[in-house]
Automatic annotation (TrEMBL):
Coiled coil: none annotated. Residues 28-368 form the Leucine-binding protein domain. PANTHER family: AMINO ACID BINDING PROTEIN (PTHR47151:SF2), LEU/ILE/VAL-BINDING ABC TRANSPORTER SUBUNIT (PTHR47151). It holds the Pfam family Peripla_BP_6. This is Leucine-, isoleucine-, valine-, threonine-, and alanine-binding protein. It comes from Achromobacter insolitus. The keyword Transmembrane helix does not apply. CDD domains: PBP1_ABC_LIVBP-like. InterPro entries: Leu-bd, Peripla_BP_I. It comes from the Bacteria. Belongs to the leucine-binding protein family. Residues 1-25 form the signal peptide. Keywords: Signal.
């Protein structure tokens, strides 16, 4: 009798284990990494919220994957915007058996981490990043936003043609993002007939730019471009005003934030910043996205949330089309993707994994608020 009872208990345990394995098989885990602590954490949180909203909506649809109803799960890691930590985090995510990667945020973490994901055969959809990301020849790399190459070209042209800046000074923070964007701006300024009269360098930890700006002042530039974060561009704009430099500060999307305005204070007005993409209220389904985001998180979405949202849906859509979450099966569907999303009616990738639709918007701070100046939309060659 005791032997039969033991057999029944063993059988029940095996059945329970089988049910648990079956339930776990329905989990489709996406890896996510970005700065979730430190001065860039507001970027990471914005991105994470957009991803979570997409996954929550997908789970309500009851999408079938590999014969079962999928439960999409986000496995998050803080890469601290540090390349060394980014690689460690990448290996951790691979070891978690994720089926795809949504991130990283910074170029400096994205590029080295992408090698880890490529070796593991995992598709990766990162944010904008420097051009090197999709020039590595990896079939696994894709973007959520227009690349920094395309953005830099638009900014350089804008400064020379619209701001009439014939003499431009350029500063970058020596990160992969800041230097890459500044390099593209320099090329575009020269191509448009402008002159780069000074090229200076700082770091993404600096807060005193007096010496650099004094050197620049002697060159009498018509505009100053900064490639780097709002944590630096905010104090930099205040110091520009203190030194009496009248040339407008122009920067990239990292400066296009409320944090910059807080840090720059009364000096913020007259600053220009580019942003890959179009304003939220001009997006294909931007207003609808904003309402759903507000309802879920009780605050307005930041710059990166809608692009992260679309990045997640791009991966989910490819998996749904392939009927499988196995990377080798859905990767071809991701490469051939053509869908309407929140940010654009035509989301598709070229052979490198760059978005085919190029859109860049220039903003200016007026009366303490960012206001759109113009949007440029075109198709990649």
């Amino acid at each position: 009798m005791k032997f039969r009872t033991t057999l029944k208990l063993l059988a029940a345990s095996i059945a329970a284990a089988g049910m648990a394995a079956s339930a776990q098989a329905a989990d489709v885990k996406f890896g996510f990494a970005a700065p979730l602590t430190g001065p860039q954490s507001h970027y990471g949180e914005d991105m994470q919220n957009g991803l979570n909203l997409a996954l929550e909506e997908a789970n309500k649809k009851g999408i079938k994957v590999d014969g079962e109803t999928a439960k999409f799960v986000l496995v998050s890691r803080d890469d601290q915007a540090d390349p060394r930590v980014g690689v460690q985090v990448a290996q951790q995510l691979v070891d978690q058996d994720v089926v795809g990667i949504l991130g990283h945020f910074n170029s400096g973490t994205t590029i080295p981490a992408s090698r880890v994901y490529h070796e593991a055969g995992l598709p990766q959809i990162a944010m904008a990043t420097s051009p090197e990301y999709t020039k590595q020849g990896y079939e696994t790399t894709f973007r959520m936003m227009t690349s920094d190459t395309q953005q830099g070209a638009a900014v350089g042209k804008f400064m020379v043609e619209k701001l009439k800046a014939k003499k431009v000074a350029i500063i970058d923070d020596r990160t992969a993002y800041g230097q890459g964007l500044a390099d593209e701006v320099e090329k575009a300024v020269k191509a448009a007939g402008g002159q780069v009269v000074r090229r200076e360098y700082t770091t993404d930890k600096a807060n005193d730019f007096t010496a650099i700006l004094t050197n620049i002042k002697g060159s009498a530039p018509d505009a100053i471009f900064y490639g780097g974060l709002d944590a630096q561009s905010g104090p930099m704009k205040r110091q520009l005003a203190t030194l009496g430099l009248k040339a407008p500060l122009v920067s990239g999307e990292m400066t296009r934030s409320d944090t910059f305005i807080k840090l720059a204070g009364d000096a913020a007005d007259g600053t220009y910043a580019s942003l890959a993409g179009v304003p939220l209220d001009k997006m294909a389904a931007g207003k609808d996205f904003e309402q759903r985001y507000q309802a879920r998180f009780k605050k307005a979405p930041g710059v990166y949330a809608p692009y992260a949202y679309d990045g997640a849906w791009n991966m989910i859509s490819a998996i749904e089309q392939a009927g499988s979450a196995k990377p080798e099966k859905y990767l071809p569907a991701l490469a051939k993707l053509n869908r309407k999303g929140a940010t654009s009616e035509h989301i598709s990738y070229d052979a490198n994994g760059d978005l085919k639709e190029i859109s860049v918007t220039i903003y200016e701070v007026k009366n303490g608020k960012w206001e759109m100046v113009e949007t440029m939309v075109s198709q990649a060659n």
